[in-house]
Amino acid sequence: MKFVYMNLMPYRDLPKNFEKDYESVFISIPRTLYDPEKGHEMYNDYIDQYELAIDLGFDAVGVNEHHSNGYGLMPSPNVMAATIARKVKDSEKACLVILGNSLALYNPPIRVAEELGMLDVITGGRLIAGFPVGTSMDTNYAYGISPAELRPRYYEAHDLIKKAWTTDEVFHFNGKFNQLRYVNVWPRTQQSPHPPIWIPGGAASLETWDWVAENDYQYSYLSFYGHKFAKDKFDKFWARRQEKGYDMNPYKAAFVQMICISETDAKAQEEYEEHINYFFEKSFHVSPRYAEAPGYRSARSVAHGMKSQYGSEGAGAQLRKGLSWQQLIDQGFIVAGSPASVREQLREAAKNLHVGNIIAMLNHGSMPQHLALKNIELMAKEVIPYLRDMWDDQWPVTNWPEVQLNSNNKETVK
Amino acid sequence: MSAPKIETVSVRENITAKVLVKGEGRPVVFLHGAGGNNWDPYMEELSKHFKVYAPFIPGTGGSTGNEELQGWWELVLYYYELFDALGLESVDVIGHSFGGMLASELASTDPKRVKNLVLICPAGLWIDETPVLDVFSYVNTPEVLLEKMFVDVNSDAAKAFSTLPEDPEERIEAIVQNLTSLAEAGRYMWPIPDKGLSRRIHRLTANTCIIWGDKDAIIPVDYAYEFHRKIPGSRVTIIENTSHYPQAEKLEDVLNTTIDFLTSSVVAK
Fold it and tell me: Is the complex ipTM more than 0.90?
């Protein structure tokens, strides 16, 4: 089992009545609510969190991309990745996951091939490249890509980056959206032919899963609803892999889980409840105006009642409305309690979902730094060591840099 | 009101158009807005006077070509080819909202293809001080959108616009049609519906009638005067107490204006 420490980098000091007084945490959140002096402290605290996670032996640290957003302050994931790249390099075997670059937003997309190449070389081949489509808010509204063109642009950018990483000669690229006479990406990636590729996404279609499998990528299911909500998605994901004749290696998938650990179950509630509430109340406060542009998903899936995870009164808010701390745990939104409780919940979740990678969110909403550090430390010392071996007697680690492979790999490779 | 005929027209080897056709006599092309090609009482009434051709934009209503055509320029060429296929060398064109943006462009790029032009609250120009509403961002809140589209949300016109079929399958189909149309129009309007018409509109020679709701909450009435300024000799009719769908809110007024204009301007030429 692999553990990725992930921090959304929330602005942790939004006004108390933010969700009542303001339209949306995404796109239209007033710029004046951002205090750069507090922001300075937050960024540096969050970087400290990443560094602690690396020191304490997380398998990787992950960064992501959001724009015009009050709960995710990494408009450039690559800047943050660069900030922690040297720490990754100096660690025993931590890796760096970019979860990732929304490919349609990079012009020209070889910028991604270049920057990730730099990071792979700086870290000594420890990079994992995540290529999400990106949310409708990020792509259609903040970055102005038309919904009808988003996916074609994404796939074209993907093909270009992949070709740039695997072609030794200078080549031309005559695409629908990108024309380049000379593609020749320096530096080459250290990993050969290129870093492992993960495809992070929300509600993916069968077509996406097939594409992930055909390319031998890893699929990271990103949602804030936790492991029980994810169950149905993963059942379909694995059923599809089986149907198509692919293996069931749990390392082919990851899921995101919000986790709160303290000395006892009661103390966990005491320490974290307010911050979890802050997260759900404020981060789910996305105006339906920006929640999903027409054409972001196929009209048919929308019409059949598949909800987007965003939108103030959308699925997210509806699902968690009025839930108590215990209900949040019972319904899997959060994994929380004493180390023993958390171990048990996580083991159960990973087993149920048949997933080999847990993207652990340990810094929630308004949490103070000392509590985040404590959460990271308890996770690293009291939880991870007990779950680490979970799949290793059965499956080789895949879609990770070489430093993280297991004994099954060595047998299969050599 | 009997349903229009749906004609299938081969525009190119790999592109097929679907066109609603009804009526006899002089041909008039109606270009629909971003919400879709919905045969409404205005079009029905027009078809009693003209032969109305209402093509679906590519990718909607069974028409193809949305993946093949790349960008606004190729869409314009596609419409000329569709006119050719329909035998319309120089024709009267009515465009509503997005359809008005398209109609203006068709009349500007190759002025001889459009004889008389009726623009009902068209998109296509941009004024920084009075921006066009980002209508796409209201699709998830239909009740707010309805308030923007209509002055009186309780009017029959507003109800006809907002009522979905009761049959679950027809209902899903209606939503799919609407979202598909918004996405396909969005291809050309996103994120700002200004694709350079202001630099080409001086080429336009068609007799032009601009119709606008005085309370248009989507494309403010200021744009009526902006179009008027840019199309010398055009006439402007402001329909009082209407918003972005004046031909639904004040059917008779818009219909009379349209018919008067189209019949008199022929005499004028």
Answer: yes
